[in-house]
Design goal:
Layout: H1 3-16, E1 28-32, E2 38-42, E3 57-61, H2 62-70, H3 72-75, H4 79-93, H5 108-111, E4 117-121, H6 124-130, H7 135-142, E5 151-153, H8 160-177, E6 183-186, E7 190-195, H9 198-213, H10 229-247, E8 253-256, H11 259-265, H12 270-273, H13 280-286, E9 291-293, H14 298-310, E10 318-321, E11 325-329, H15 335-352, H16 363-370, H17 373-382
Parallel strand pairs: 5-6, 9-10
Antiparallel strand pairs: 1-2, 1-4, 2-3, 4-7, 6-7, 8-11, 10-11
Helix pairs in contact: 1-9, 2-4, 6-15, 10-14, 13-15
Length: 386
């Protein structure tokens, strides 16, 4: 096996197995070949933990991937047309023997501008800072001892515009510091770590996560107070009925409960903290934040779902029922991802609220993601559809 591919599989599996680092098919990784001609990168919508020698990656010609960001004609296109063009260009850059239908990550042209090994994750620890109003200032203080300071990337629409912005910021950073950044925090998005070797990148990820967590309130690990089976059954039946009434769709209903969920539900302002969507992945994989349910009344919840749809928003797929737990609506494959996204979300919201307030996507940013074909493609794969 090519060493670059072996390194890609190693960093992908090691980081992808931890739901506090990445959820569902989110995040991506890449490794450039020693000759600088090619880049192996995770395939879009596939889970990092599932990567193997045969599936979950594509190999791109590096110079072709770099040329996408440099293309002035693409920059002038309307957003949706532009992003479809980028998908085509990245597919054209592929040079491998992969037989299955698999797109390279939509951020492949972004990875091309960074160091040899790149790990892009959505850790709850980094997200607490990336989604806090005072998060940037807190990070600057936290990482002040670093020889090379982390690069803060203001929120930018994912895809071409984010790649172009990071390319510019990296060039400026290199002129100022004589080196490309090793750590990048992306506002309302996630974390990039980049290094010349796979082992170095993994160690850096662990160090960044450890440092971020050192300043954050950690969730309760003890077993929660038991909820009666009758209450659980009633809540699941209520959400099942509400979901069908509100959306006109029928799906499976799942229940989850642990110490972190119990602790969040006991907060007096839990409902208010669930307003607004945190990140692109929360919007893609769980249709935004969990709906807070004070009292499980099917018609009332259905009315709220209809209101979301009428406003052109994605309807909720997760419901935090006070005193009961998390009820998720989705396929057997999607339900665990919804659970992981909710756990990620409540951790971030709890900590961001303590750092000046929660920073969420605005209406325009949500609309871009909702209309982005690449995100619809990722969601389809996550649902087990081809």
């Amino acid at each position: 096996m090519n060493q670059a591919l072996a390194d890609l599989i190693k960093i992908s599996r090691e980081t992808g197995a931890d739901p506090t680092l990445v959820q569902g098919g989110g995040g991506n990784t890449s490794v450039k070949t020693a000759d600088g001609k090619y880049m192996y990168i995770k395939a879009s919508g596939t889970a990092l933990k599932d990567m193997s020698e045969k599936v979950g990656w594509r190999r791109l010609r590096l110079e072709t991937a770099l040329s996408v960001v440099k293309d002035k004609e693409i920059a002038q296109m309307p957003p949706q047309k532009r992003e479809l063009k980028v998908v085509d260009r990245l597919l054209e850059a592929c040079d491998d023997n992969v037989k299955v239908e698999a797109r390279p990550s939509v951020e492949a042209h972004l990875h091309a501008w960074l160091d040899k090994c790149v790990i892009h994750l959505h850790p709850s620890s980094a997200g607490a800072f990336a989604n806090a109003r005072n998060g940037r200032a807190k990070l600057e203080k936290l990482f002040k001892a670093e020889k090379l300071p982390p690069l803060w990337v203001p929120y930018t629409d994912p895809g071409y515009m984010l790649a172009k912005r990071i390319a510019g910021l990296v060039e400026r950073y290199q002129k100022e510091h004589g080196s490309r950044p090793a750590i990048l925090f992306l506002e309302k998005h996630g974390l990039f770590v980049t290094a010349p070797a796979a082992g170095t990148a993994l160690r850096l990820v662990r160090r960044v996560i450890r440092l971020c967590n050192s300043k954050l309130k950690q969730p309760k690990k003890a077993k929660p107070k038991p909820v009666s089976p009758e209450k659980i059954d009633a809540a699941m039946a209520c959400i099942d009925q509400a979901y069908t009434l509100g959306t006109g769709e029928k799906t499976d209903i799942w229940y989850y409960y642990n110490g972190a969920i119990e602790e969040f539900m006991l907060l007096k302002d839990a409902g208010k903290m669930l307003v607004g969507c945190l990140t692109p992945d929360e919007l893609v994989y769980s249709s935004g934040p969990a709906m807070w349910v004070e009292k499980c009344d099917a018609r009332s919840i259905a009315k709220r779902l209809k209101k979301q749809i009428a406003a052109g928003k994605k309807h909720s797929a997760a419901f935090l029922v006070k005193g009961v737990g998390l009820v998720a609506a989705g396929t057997e494959k999607m339900a665990p991802t919804i659970r992981d996204i909710v756990l990620y979300s409540i951790f971030i919201r709890t900590n961001a609220a303590r750092m000046g307030g929660i920073l969420t996507l605005n209406k325009r940013q949500e609309e871009f993601i909702n209309n982005w074909e690449s995100e619809a493609f990722r969601k389809k794969l996550a649902d087990g559809k081809r």
